[in-house]
Amino acid sequence: MKSIIGLGNPGDRYRNTRHNLGFRVVEALEGKGRARKVSSRKSYELSVCGVGSLQVDLVKPLTYMNCSGHGVLEYLEDSGADLTDILVVCDDVYLPLGRIRLRRSGGDGGHNGMASIIEFLGSESFGRMRIGVGLPSDSSELATYVLKPFSEEETPVVEEVIARARDAAMAFAEEGIEAAMNKFNG
Question: For 2-184, which CATH superfamily applies?
Answer without folding.
Answer: Peptidyl-tRNA hydrolase (3.40.50.1470)
